[in-house]
Amino acid sequence: MILKKFTPHRAVISSWIVIGMSLIMVAAISVLAVFNYNREKTGMQQMLNEKGAALIKSFEAGTRTGMMGRFGTESRLQTLLSETASQDDILYIALVDVSGRVLAHNNPDKIGQMFTSPHTMKYLAPTDKTSWRTIDREGRPVSFEVFRKFLPVLRSPPTPQMREGRRMNMRGPDNEAIWCQPGWMEGLPQDRILDPEERPVIFIGMDPSPYVEAMREDFRATLLTSAIVLLLGMAGVVSLFWAQSYTRSRKLLQDSRAFAAEMVANLPEGIIVTDPGRKITFINPIATDMLDLDPLESIGKS
């Protein structure tokens, strides 16, 4: 019988395999968690951007309607600003000139103040397409701003019905009339708001905290799920190696016992093994021949 020699190198190799597979699982789960977080972040940004764009279009449509006098003589652009910004997730709405100064705001006290610096306005470079940015404070987003150029003017000459109670304020770049209901922009720099040469920029600031908190909760759930999957995976890998080591050890033990039994059975001397109660547990053929005993009947006798 040939016995395989067991060396500690196999145990070392098994340990390195467990460590390597664990590191691979950690890397894979981490990549999936980060990918999921970035996907949700991109989805949140896209959703807020689309919502802001829809609000800007709605506000411009309301401004055009007010300029046409369809809101009556009591309504004002300031009222439209305040009512639109009264939604829970809207922080502010501001019309800002190219220098960053507030022309109109849902908070009238901010009119004439600096909304942002001229350098920032130049850096943002607003266009007719909606853009966005996040305003952070102490590393946390406090406002999600959507902005683009703003000029909701009536470029076609009004009908006779529209002319009644209205007046022409200025002319656009193509010498087209820009009409506005008298008093609609009362208390606001109307000429600068409707200036076709230097179109103001509309900023809508939205509260991102509900979405950020939802992302954090989801990220925590993802981390918890990933940790559980990682632990289960590592436990499975370790269990496989433990089972393999147990099978190998058991096989070695069986081989050792068989080898010992074979060696003892073929010794040239008689051997009798007894338990603490002096009962025979093993007797080799030489001893049975010497004592004239039956091998089967002698086991268990004293």
Blueprint (SSEs and pairs):
Elements (H helix, E strand, L loop, with lengths): L7 H60 L9 H8 L5 E7 L5 E4 L12 H7 L6 E7 L2 E10 L10 H4 L3 E5 L5 E4 L9 H4 L7 E6 L2 H57 L6 E3 L5 E4 L1 H7 L3 H4 L4
Helix pairs in contact: 1-2, 1-6
Number of helices: 8
- Structural class by sheet pairing and helices: alpha+beta
State the helicity in percent bands.
40-55%
Q: Give the total of domains.
A: 2
Shape: rod-shaped
Order of helices and strands: HHEEHEEHEEHEHEEHH
What is the CATH architecture term of the largest domain?
A: 2-Layer Sandwich
Q: Using the coordinates shown, work out and report the CATH topology of the largest domain.
A: Beta-Lactamase
Strand order of the largest sheet: 2-1-7-4-3
